[in-house]
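OP here, attaching both records as promised.
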Amino acid sequence: MQAAQALAGVEALQVPFVNGHFVRNAVDLGALPEGVEIVPLAEALASGHDWLARLSPVKWASENPVYQLNTSFMADGVMIRIAGTVDTPIHLRFVTAAASAVATATRILVLVEEGASVTLLETHESTDGANHQPNDVVEIIAGDRTNVQHVRVNAEGDKALALSTLALKVGGEALFNSINVVAGSATSRHQVFAVLAGENTNLRVNGATMLKGSQHGDSTLVVEHAAPYCESRELFKTVIDNEATGVFQGKIIVPHHAQKTDGRMMSAALLLEEGGSMNNKPELEIFADDVQCAHGATCGQLDEDLLFYLMARGLPKKEAESLLVQAFLGEAVEFVENEGAREALIGTVEGWLKARA
């Protein structure tokens, strides 16, 4: 199996999937880090494992056609249980290496028990020129007082049509941070369905998307504040070059009983050339009266004054543009706690900018 490209320098327990199937012999299930238990989904389906009852924890995901398509065709995946503090990140690595066109559907269930903490890395890779359609679903049920850090990278090849879903159900007094970085695939849609099911929970969902040529990148988000006294922050940054198209559609839902909710959602896009487009649709659906909620969307070009300032100090135009783009995307990336993962994400941004030059 080839070496990982995305997040390659981060020391982690690798859980690989090739062409939609868990590589069973690549993971010693009897020698996992303390507090980690992994059950292959194919074996669980055959034996009727108890954890199967915890699949599909978020109704908003279950009603989604992309998710339903995964449910209809899922053939493999894993179920992971986290108990206690797990210091070693777990790297879910999805690789498509088929010689001909292929469609895959994997399902991952992660159960984070009360008081546990873990860093989950998720990467999606394939070679350029290969037509394929992955449809991957990661479901995470995080109990009370948990701490989950989730980093996802789309490094798919230039012909991929990549579909992915992250479904979250988070308990009370928990901290959950997630970021999705898109630097690959011809067409991609990453959707997040999150339910804050316990009080005093803090959720952050960020995105950093880099599109060029005729790429199409879609980020879809639904966050339900199903309990009071919760805070959520959603920040999505999109950089569009050439004639690429970006999409952001996000919604925060606050039921009548979720008083003292604090939810803020922002989508910002940077168009580097004429011909690109960005479509924003942020929404708030609020039925409670004691809340602080806001949403916003911006779309613009590089600041000419800042560009002139950098060029006046001897930087070539492309280099000056790259520095400004890095600063723009950096706001979405900087919160990542794992230093290796954060540096790898910065490297992904820098690699995309070098390829543009």
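Record two, same layout:
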Amino acid sequence: MASAPERPLPDGFLTLEGQQRFLDTFLPVRNRVLREFYHGPRTRDRAPRTAAPAWRAAIRLLGTRTDETVPELYRLYYNRLFAAIWLALNWGPYTPAIRQLPDPLQRIHLSQVNSVDTCWRPAVESAPPDGLLVEVGTGLSDGWARLALLMPQARIVTITIERDQAEIGRRIARELGLHDRVRFRVGDVFSPGTTQDLAGQADAVTAMGVIPHFPPPRKAEGLRAMAAMLKPGSPLLVFDAYRTRPFSPFMRRALISSLSWYPSGADFRTALDEAGLRPLRFDIHPPAHCLPFADDTRATAALREEFGPLIAWTFPRIVSGFMKGLLKPQESVYLSAVRK
């Protein structure tokens, strides 16, 4: 029997030209929404508009506090401050083509969009065009927006623990004309009510930079909760990292302070097995592919405008040092897994 013809890939998928076209469409909208969100009229649900969270964010990376929850961590420290430096909150391997680009901020942004493309590739290639795609971890909206524009018939649910991320995402979706296909949920995947109605419904589930936020005893539980949303045979797609050797005492304190626990490679595979998942793909990228991301973290005009020259000078240096300490002792991995 003749095999079914291969589905043509969307225009611009996994190409620098297509990824840059996405950035040209997405970034002006995202940046405008962020400015309006953080500088518009105050509401009772919005974090205070003061410089204090910026300073606290810089100090936070030194590992001096451990008392916030993950939603508070993102709302008070990461959403606004990191948006001025990075597109999202996860790094991406640098391909040879990305390394050759002269603009450091363009390299950072393209590496992240390329990570979205690479992580989602099995879904883009095989999921039904009008399928249901679930993203765990909304971040700053580059993931769901990239997929929604690549697959104009797909239905997308994106889940975040942080209400500001969801509201920012909704506003971006409205401006991009995607609000009828993308649904935003605020909730924790460990809470059954967050995903109960999606059980067995998704044609693919993705998580980028999410697994480290699962506490060590709950890695398998978190993977199992995400996999429970999948249709039989559909893939769980993950971009994340595991440590290849112990972190320094400073990095251990800083990561715990950031509510992050990176497993070893063996622990990662054990968690997949305990979650009842069978890897189909486990693509490893050594530190050399990701460390340029840390070197490219630097002050931008947006950072100076938003927080002033002192933060613009200080914070990128803190972030760069932190990322080097984070990335040197670990490998990044793209994996696709199905339930056994």
